[in-house]
Amino acid sequence: MLKFIQVSKQYLDDKPALENVSFEIDKGELVLITGPSGSGKTTLLKLLTKELEPSEGEIFFGDQDLGKLKRSKIPYHRRKIGAVFQDYKLLPELNVWENIALALSILGHPDNEIEEKVTDLLKLVGLADKAYLFPHQLSGGEAQRISIARALSTAPQIIFADEPTGNLDAENSLIVAKLLRKINELGTTVIVTTHDPVVIKYLSFAHKMTIDKGTLFDENAKKPAKKVEDVEKAEAKEDHDGDHKDRDDHVDDRDDDKEQKTEVKVNKSSDSKEPKVKKHWGFFGVFKHKEKSSQSEKSEKSDNHDPHDHDHHHDDHHDHIEVESEDLDEDEKNEHHQDKKDKKSKSDKPKVKKHEEKED
Description:
The protein starts with a strand and ends with a helix. The longest helix is centred in the last third of the chain and has 50 residues, at 310-359. The chain has helices at 41-48, 74-78, 96-106, 111-124, 140-152, 170-185, 197-202, 228-260, 297-304, 310-359, and strands at residues 2-10, 16-25, 30-34, 56-61, 64-65, 81-84, 158-162, 189-194, 207-212, 215-218, 277-281, 287-291. Mean pLDDT is 76; it is low at 223-229, 261-329 and 344-360. The chain folds into two domains: 2-218, P-loop containing nucleotide triphosphate hydrolases (Rossmann fold, 3-Layer(aba) Sandwich), CATH 3.40.50.300; 250-354, no CATH class. The protein is globular and about 65 Å long. Helices cover 46% and strands 19% of the residues. It has ten helices and twelve strands. By secondary structure, it is of the alpha/beta class. A six-stranded mixed β-sheet has the order 6-7-8-3-9-10, sandwiched between helices. A four-stranded antiparallel β-sheet has the order 2-1-4-5, with helices on one face.
């Protein structure tokens, strides 16, 4: 809606009031321009209303290049901008109603329309009961609210409030700040220049700019849009990184399964000639066993069996080994017991013989 492009303004031989200033304001924005007195804030307003011409640069209001605006069109341009000043600028000889209605009357609006608009504006600023008072009968806060109502009378596209609370106490500053925010919420673009801490704090959410010694810094400066190719590359990179992460997670899950599996161990004697067992990594992280071909009928069946039943046969094989081992241990115990029995029998024979001789 409003654009300054490398604008500079210098007064005679003095230092530039504005130097290489660039910013852009969209329709419906609330903009806060902060900076000390004399930093160049008022110069921005004068350039916008065509009271001053820039020394360098371009100013666009909508699609209109203000540098190419004809002198006869300046009054029409100014109607699109509602100005609010630090010293109110109310006409002392007119009452509140007449100050607000003056611009509408000059533009030739009918009386019934003027009455309706003025009434609505007085209600908006909360001063409907002050309609017939004169400016000198108003407090500073009231006078500034009437000034805002007058600025709104022509339904401008922008309200430019230049230090609107410079002559007010903290309480009235807050009232004015709330009113400007309300106007913005109703759809009007609002630009506020100020160094008032009350206003700065209350409007802290606004689009902020800072100006000092003619140099402006836009805290909400828009970054240049990314090219389509750059966006596509960034998206492809994100997808690639996501795939790597999924694969890493899958490997971690397999490692966890491996740690949780119990490894089957078979004890063998050193002189055992049983074929060595070949181990390999299965699909779900389970160690499966394959014996070499032609070793035994069981191993051949195991190798040719359906892979889905492989784990079952492996468990049967393990159980068989354990049973044989248990049988072997039992036989050894029986043999040992029999040997002891035979020895005892032999040792008892001489005693029996001596006993028989004694009886004879």
